[in-house]
Amino acid sequence: MSYILVTGGAGYIGSHTVIELVNHGYKVVIVDNLCNSSYDAVARIEYIVKQHVPFFNVDLRDSDALDKVFKQYDIQGVIHFAALKAVGESTKIPLQYYDNNIGGTISLLNVMKANSVKTVVFSSSATVYGDATRFENMIPIPEHCPNDPTNPYGKTKYMIEQILKDIHTADNQWRSAILRYFNPIGAHPSGLLGEDPLGIPNNLLPYLAQVAIGRRDKLSIFGNDYDSHDGTPIRDYIHVVDLAKGHISALNYLNKLETGEGLFREWNLGTGKGSTVFDVYHAFCKAVGRELPYEVAGRRGGDVLNLTANATRANTELKWEATLSVEDACKDLWKWTTENPFGFNIDNYKWQVFNDDKSDYSNRLHTVSFANGFKVSLANRGALLQSVVKNGTSVVCGFQDPSRYIEKSNPFFGTTVGRVANRIGGAKFELNGNTYQLAANEGANTLHGGFHGYDKQTFFGPVAKQEKNGDKVVNTFLFKYEDKDGNNGFPGDVECVIKYTVDDESVGIEFIGSHLETSPAEATVINLTNHSYFNISGTDSTDGTVVKAITNTQLEVDDSLLPTGKFVPTHTDITKPTKIGPDCAFDYCFVVNEAGSGIDTRSDELKPVLEATHPNTNIKLVAATTDPAFQLYTGTGIDTPGFKPRSGFCVENSRFVNAINVPEWRKQVIVKRGETYGSKAKYTFVDA
Ligand code: NAD
Ligand code: UD1
């Protein structure tokens, strides 16, 4: 399988382009040293495209490391975004700009040559034209406009173009598409990706967005005495998604050349339409819904009246055209800004790689900490809850070593369980006249989704966000896994999203299973839960924990732990405080609502169903759910190094066990194509 290598793919334009590449069927590898970006952008790319995108934290100037990437993947071509790009900064630290941009490109081209990769799409800029108004009839600017960059940044772009030209002259099999961008603006319409400028933004829209969100007082408009309809300068603002698509068109164009045929050619990527600063200001105010403060300041040095593209060459040759407006871009930018007011930076959240191979970012451990010491860690594998620390006490069983999660003896610590939690009797069920035979992984039954259940999957994401309301800080983490038709024998394509909502005393979990419109099956079966083992004793045993539930009704089970269909009381009345231990153990499905539930319970009451305390600590756990049942399992079977029987207990929200095989219960778990399964659970840790 061949790949497109995207340098700078974690950055603003690169991340949007990676999405378009994947959407157009390309496989992508990203190389980025994260000097002006965040890996979170890559995590969000994967979340959006629902595909793994290999990522390498490599500086382009490190030729050896770069070469390893070329050796590991069959690279067909390169889109080269990686560069430093701030005009003002480049005049202060020109050497770093030349070193990074030109040095990085030379290293890249050497590695490409050594690996016989001769196709490159290069991020150039309209800045290579300098002041195009110095000539007559050069506005809108055509590609043949003479170049005269006016700052070190622009000069790096100009020089790289020249290098690519010379390489093509020397070896005419090289294919170089030079894309000269005009003013990229906007963000991904999903609200998940956008520009995340460090420090004070230089560019118009990022600055204006920070004014709107309250991070800056007012916009300074640099001069209103230009010869335009309102006195402010004219630029060609292009939506970043249109720009990203231009790269696909360029790449397709290069790929369609005859075998052995090379090319060196420049294309302007712009809309061909000019907008003034006030035009953009008004469009953004409209998106925000209010007038934003501004003042007119003096002209900014280096600015010129009009830089609008003549994009005819790209329109005709690449068959590419910008279709989105400045208004669209403003709307998308505002969505990105309000949903991510500090970009990817969340002040109480950190992550680390949670794989033995530290260069493999697919499984990461995400830790969120609060001022009161409450701390929660989640991992991509199984979208699992690895740790919760309350008052200095670890209250959830988890492994420090990521490889422990893969061991057979791991009793599902902290993990999401699906597609069907708990047991399916006889490892089979009937649906719409079809019999589905599953793999039996527990005697004759299927337990917790089978051999390749959600606990064994690496979820994409997370999309990590934070909201602050006065002193209250709430963090959310969205993880996604696409469970394809046929996995573990289940019918239908299911997109599973696990949303954690964490504040300074609780962990909420939302379980969302969408049976996709495009699924080949008419209906499927879903029952999702979380398998955390809680321990609020402060020791390695939960013995002596006092639990109290709102129900004492359980599903009666037979010898293979399958429900008989009857509701019966439990051996000990747990609606009264009950001390768990060797003589008082539970592994029962308790019924909160005998009538069962519909498929999506998320808007139902989040009912506290069980509370637990332990005399050793001052911690009370309250477990709540919207589901009609929960499994209370006191961990008799735990047998893994470092943990022993009853080191933790589970309160797993769920539908009734084996519901799919019991006529009166089936509707709790059958999800038709286009429908969404949903439920919520919440674990709150308060001072007792
Ligand atoms: P960006 O800073 O968001 O993205 C550039 C990425 O390259 C970053 O993720 C950065 O970490 C990475 N990078 C930089 N130097 C690197 C190195 N030596 N090794 C590996 N990675 C490195 O910028 P962007 O706005 O997405 O711009 C992308 C490209 O487009 C740049 O080449 C820029 O010059 C060009 N461009 C941008 C604009 C614009 O307005 N944004 C306009 C014209 C051209
Ligand atoms: C700048 C870079 C250009 C780069 C482009 C990328 C310069 C001289 N040029 O272009 O190389 O390719 O960014 O987007 O830096 N404005 C204000 N107030 C502000 C910011 C900007 O009035 O706070 C005005 C500017 O005067 C300009 C317009 O907004 O007329 C756009 O400015 P900006 O976003 O910085 O882009 P350019 O200057 O066009």
TrEMBL record:
Q: Which GO terms describe its cellular component?
A: cytosol
Q: rRNA-binding among the record's keywords?
A: no
Q: Where are the transmembrane segments?
A: none
Q: Give residue ranges for domain NAD(P)-binding.
A: 5-332
Task: Check the record and name the CDD domains matching this protein.
Answer: galactose_mutarotase_like, UDP_G4E_1_SDR_e
Q: Which GO terms describe its biological process?
A: galactose metabolic process
Pathway given for this chain reads: Carbohydrate metabolism; galactose metabolism; Carbohydrate metabolism; hexose metabolism
Keywords attached to this entry: Carbohydrate metabolism, Isomerase, NAD
Cofactor(s) demanded: NAD(+)
Catalytic reaction equation(s): UDP-alpha-D-glucose = UDP-alpha-D-galactose
Return the Pfam families for the record: Aldose_epim (PF01263), GDP_Man_Dehyd (PF16363)
Carries keyword Isomerase?
yes
The cross-references to InterPro entries, in alphabetical order and at most eight, read: Ald1_epimerase_CS (IPR018052), Aldose_1/G6P_1-epimerase (IPR008183), Gal_mutarotase_sf_dom (IPR011013), Galactose_mutarotase-like (IPR047215), GH-type_carb-bd (IPR014718), NAD(P)-bd_dom (IPR016040), NAD(P)-bd_dom_sf (IPR036291), UDP_G4E (IPR005886)
Name one molecular function that GO assigns to this entry. Answer: UDP-glucose 4-epimerase activity
Taxonomy, superkingdom: Eukaryota
Per the entry, what this protein does is: Mutarotase converts alpha-aldose to the beta-anomer. It is active on D-glucose, L-arabinose, D-xylose, D-galactose, maltose and lactose.
The family line of this record is: In the N-terminal section; belongs to the NAD(P)-dependent epimerase/dehydratase family. In the C-terminal section; belongs to the aldose epimerase family.
List the protein's name: NAD(P)-binding domain-containing protein
Q: List the top taxonomic levels of the source.
A: Eukaryota, Fungi, Dikarya, Ascomycota, Saccharomycotina
